[in-house]
Give the backbone structure.
Amino acid sequence: MCGEHQHDDTEVQDAAVAGARFRVAEMTCNHCAGTIRKAFEQLMPGTPVAIDVGAREVMVTGDAETAANAIRAAGYEPLLVA
């Protein structure tokens, strides 16, 4: 495990979107990506998720707030990329 990650209560707009892209600075390896993917499977089953570890980005189709909550549930802090 990569260690515990802390996060704050940064708000993400609660809006249904065709797709949302998040920067996840603490995501540094494939284990981190797997942890995030597992959280999406639990909170947003069947939602397409693309994870780019090198760019430290997560792209997802669906509601931005729910997606941010899935990333937070994995222990990471998402930053919505405009």
Notes: The chain has two helices and four strands. The domain at 16-80 is CATH 3.30.70.100 (Alpha-Beta Plaits). The beta strands are 16-23, 49-52, 57-63, 79-80.
